[in-house]
Amino acid sequence: LRAQYEALAARNLQAAEDWYRARCARLHERAARSQEAVRASRREAGECRRQLQARLVEMESLRGAHQSLERQLQELEERHNAEAAGLQDTIGQLEDDLRNTKNEMARHLREYQDLLNVKMALDIEIAAYRKLLEGEETLFNMGSVGLPALNSLPNPTYSFEPRSFSSST
């Protein structure tokens, strides 16, 4: 009985040792796989950290570039506003000059019209005097039929051609 118990105990011990070794082998195998997964996870985490650092550096660089561009944009806007104000002043001055020039042209046109009216009146008056002179000359010629010596004088004729002025308004 004892031998049976010892054989049974030896078998149980052997089975327990086999189970223990198989279990340890599986655990070692699982531990090796887990350790490889941990290494892969660490490598991946390290790669992610490096990428994160690169992205942070890139982000800081872009932030600096953005701030620089914002400053440049603000300076350009200020310069543009100053130029626009200067151009508005120039436009105002030019409009004043144009208004003054138009007023001066209108004044010159009125003066020209006045002078033209005076000229027309003088032309009418000259034409009237010419008619009178021609009438006198005709009377003088008619009355001097008996005076042949006076007829030998050249016959003065007056001709006047008034100029025509055109004005554009």
TrEMBL record:
GO annotation, cellular component aspect: cytoplasm; intermediate filament; postsynaptic intermediate filament cytoskeleton
SUPFAM superfamilies: Intermediate filament protein, coiled coil region
Gene Ontology MF terms in the entry: structural constituent of postsynaptic intermediate filament cytoskeleton
Signal peptide residues on this chain, from the entry's feature table: none
Coiled coil in keyword set: yes
Protein name: AINX protein
Pfam families assigned: Filament
Top-level taxon of origin: Eukaryota
Assigned protein family: Belongs to the intermediate filament family.
Keyword Coiled coil: yes
Record domain IF rod: where: 1-140
UniProt keyword list: Coiled coil, Intermediate filament
GO terms under biological process: intermediate filament organization
InterPro entries reported in the protein's UniProt record: IF_conserved (IPR018039), IF_rod_dom (IPR039008), Intermediate_filament (IPR050405)
Coiled-coil residues: 59-118
PANTHER family: ALPHA-INTERNEXIN (PTHR45652:SF18), GLIAL FIBRILLARY ACIDIC PROTEIN (PTHR45652)
